[in-house]
Amino acid sequence: MSQTAEVVIVGAGIVGSSIAYHLMAAGCRNVLLLERESATGKGSTGKSMGGVRAQFSTPVSIQMSLYSIPFYSSFEERLGYPCDYRPQGYLFCATSDRHLAYLRTNFEKQVQLGLKNVRLVEGDEIRAMFPLLRGDDIVGGSFCTTDGFVDPYSAMNGFLTWAADHGATLWKNAAVTGIVKDNRGIATVETTRGPVATRKVVNCCGAWAAEIAKMVGLDLPVTPLRRMLVPSEPFDQFPHTAPMIIDMSNGFHFRPESRGFLLAWNDPEETAGFKTEFDPAFVEKILTCAADRVPVFADLPVNPKRAWAGLYEMTPDHHPILGEAAGVPGFFLANGFSGHGVMHAPATGRILSDLILTGKTDLIDVSLLGLDRFASGRLIHETAVL
Ligand SMILES: Cc1cc2nc3c(=O)[nH]c(=O)nc-3n(C[C@H](O)[C@H](O)[C@H](O)COP(=O)(O)OP(=O)(O)OC[C@H]3O[C@@H](n4cnc5c(N)ncnc54)[C@H](O)[C@@H]3O)c2cc1C
Fold this sequence. Notes:
23% strand, alpha/beta
């Protein structure tokens, strides 16, 4: 077997790319990324809304954002490539006292962990900031100015290009078809471009991660869930400086994109599965939510042909599964981001690079995110999922 690698990363989306960058930056010399498609970014990364936020409900999610968002804000200085970080904020709009209490509890955790730019806002302040929102039922909210958006494709590309500039190798059209173990753990990765000898493999296959885990006998609780986004045509009747605005009454949210707006909503009728076709019936559903919260959106021009669908990679507790799998030495997991893989990619890269190269990390308590938490019932539920 002629091809060998110190670390093989399976899947060259934003997560695999960030891990490659962090490994190379930490001094690893022989990293091989395997991507089954002829181009990178064709998984969930290229379909993402690009939202980045630290307004989460669990300490570990908040800590991952506290590394990732400053990383994105200094991305170009560090890597020399842009990621188009726009700190326009996330504004959660509460429409009940229960929502408000939830936001207050989260706010206290976020501040305690060191988030500086988050604050609770009164209903009147939201109405004054955005008079075009229907605000009669908004009782308050929370706003963080360093939350915002990135361009996921540019960020992925920046990580990948930097890693390649520093000696990492990317194989496209290289689907992983099998993983062979020996008595020391991982031995060979079989691909459509031939076998690769390695002792360390990282599963970065997004919504398809369970297939790769099965190759080493692991049952990975990561399920695909369709997620649809609707962009509008150019529209100037709402400010383009707006943050991501979340209507907590139904989860509808939107942000400025190009000369229009990008609309998102988690349809409660959606069911799990590898469905990536956009359903035209979704347009009417989401425009109903949009016009309800932003009356001028009743005139929002939308071309359904420009809308798209992709896959969230869901875990039962909406936290990722990170680290080396117990019982399979050399097999690392970076999966199940439950819709937060872009915003948490920088932290994931650092954590996996630490674990692969040194066996530990000080960024988070990674034992909280191990695969074994499902069998032992130690789930930690993230509820701030959009
Ligand atoms: C509509 C939508 C909106 C989203 N919005 C946000 C958001 O606002 N913020 C946020 O943080 N996240 C968001 N997400 C989630 C985010 O996009 C994902 O969490 C993230 O892209 C996951 O990155 P990844 O690299 O793990 O997976 P992917 O980008 O899916 O990459 C996995 C790669 O593995 C490859 N692969 C699979 N099987 C094999 C194989 N056998 N051999 C070789 N290669 C293989 C695939 O081709 C793919 O390129 C959104 C997702 C969607 C669909």
